[in-house]
Amino acid sequence: MYTASSAVSAPPRPQTRLVQAGGPYLAPAPRAARPRSWAAGTGTGFGTQVSGRIDLSGPQGAQLKVAIAAVQRICPEFNPVQVLRRSGRSVLIVGTTGRTTAVAKCLLDHSPAWVERFRHEIASYRSFVRHRPPVRAPRLIAADPENCTLVIERMPGRAAALSRHPVEAPPRADVRAALGAIARLNAWRPPAGTFDAPLDYGTRIARYHELGLFTDRDRDDLQKLLHGLAHAGGRQGMGQFCHGDALLSNILLSPAGPVLVDWEHAGWYLPGYDLATLWAVLGDAPLARRQISQMAQQQGPAARDAFLVNLMIVLTREIRTYETAVQRTIKEAPPAGSVPVVSGALAPGEEQRLLLRRLHDDCAMARRAVRAAVGTR
Questions:
Q1: Considering just the CA atoms, what is the radius of gyration of the chain in Å?
Q2: Residue 133 carries which DSSP code?
Q3: DSSP code of 92?
Q4: φ and ψ of 241, to 5 deg
Q5: Which of 82-86, 295-299, 321-325, 371-375 tops mean pLDDT?
Q6: Which residues form the Aminoglycoside phosphotransferase domain (predicted)?
Q7: Sign of the torsion angle spanned by Cα atoms 94, 97, 102, 108
Q8: Tell me, what's the pLDDT at 337?
């Protein structure tokens, strides 16, 4: 939540393979060495980082005035200091409330989907006031669900990654800390009725099938796994509390321990949803992926099947997101030759295309694992 989105980039990689180890097991093959720097591209996250001063001039300044006024209605002592991030969807403003440093988040796009998500995040922070999770999370200072305004304390620490899909493998210690925090959170069971289930698996699978993202066999195989999971423990029995957007960019690392931010997707999922999210974005960290796959299998075949269902859904969502990003980049790209290209740099949109190719390779591997899992039932 606190870090700005950076370029989407991924270098080419060799084909991955499926390793059988006590059932369908996703483990990428060793990766070859590659250059460590890549040209900047268009990010697809929360927005680009903006100036460190409050600029109230122009149309964006007028919009910022409205946001600050909304924050000060619910938190009169809030003194804005810096615009941390701004996008077409929302703005983050760093300020002070007395002796506390705070972050105000204001929704700019009040379309129904974003409003619902923002209110869910407010509800999550309010729930944490009464029922603290087993991981560190920002403390709620003030919130206004009607006007979609949220003020929370600013937590110290650095993001485990600055981009959604890190170009290079993060340090092992960072991955270990992130996985430890996710494991503690997934083992937590908040009181009944505190959180709902943000994802309807049957509906999402049917929707992806209608859009042509899932084949008939994909749909049938995933439905078979869901049917088996229902018999294994029922929807309630197989439920696991998840962050819902467990990206490394949403995990702050500090000496006091990891801090999880951006709780707008928190709720009950099939086991392994957070692990599937981390697996999907750690394409350049084969050792971390192997560790995640082992963690997903520890509870037996049912947990493995749930992880595979989650992985297919997460990877397909990422593919859909970056296909849209590639199309947008192609549409907005300047005419060929009108912009000088630095020697060795990638053409506009090439970073997204490389990442998209990697995601398709990952999805093909996950598809083979799903079919193997169906064959063992």
A1: 21
A2: -
A3: E
A4: -75, 130
A5: 371-375
A6: 94-300
A7: negative
A8: 55
Residue 127 neighbours by CB distance under 10 Å: 18
Kindly state the tokens that stand for 148: 């979609």
Cβ-contact 27, 19 below 8 angstroms: yes
Please tell me the distance from the alpha carbon of residue 103 to that of residue 61, in angstroms, as a whole number.
Answer: 18
Comparing 96-110, 342-356, 357-371, the range with the smallest average pLDDT is 342-356
Residues 16-20, mean pLDDT to the nearest whole number: 40
Q: What is the pLDDT of residue 187?
A: 96
Position 61: which residue type?
G
Q: Which helix (H) or strand (E) holds 60?
A: helix 58-74
326: which 2 tokens?
Answer: 């590639």
Helix (H) or strand (E) holding 25: strand 24-26
Cα–Cα distance, 18 to 8 (Å, whole number): 26
Chain Cα centroid distance, residue 371: 26
Strand order across the beta sheet in which 259-260 lies: 158-159, 251-253, 259-260
pTM confidence score: 0.82
Q: Which of 130, 155, 129 is nearest to 140 (CA)?
A: 129
Nearest residue to 3 (alpha-carbon basis) of 179, 223, 157, 121: 157
Q: Give the tens place of pLDDT for each residue, 182-193.
A: 999 999 999 988
Q: CA nearest 241: which of 180, 308, 300, 192? A: 192
Cβ neighbors of 102 (< 8 A, separation 6 or more) are 75, 78, 94, 95, 96, 141, 151, 152, 153, 154
Average of per-residue pLDDT across 88-114: 93
Contact 26, 366 (CB under 8 A): yes
% of the chain residues with pLDDT over 70: 80
- Its sign, for the CA torsion 325, 159, 187, 303, is positive
Of 212-216, 321-325, 366-370, the one with minimum mean pLDDT is: 321-325
Are residues 44 and 327 in contact, defined by beta-carbon separation less than 8 angstroms? Answer: no
| pLDDT at position 1 over 60 | no
Whether 59 shows a pLDDT value over 80: the answer reads no
Cβ-in-10-Å burial (0-12, 13-18, 19+) of 10 comes to: buried
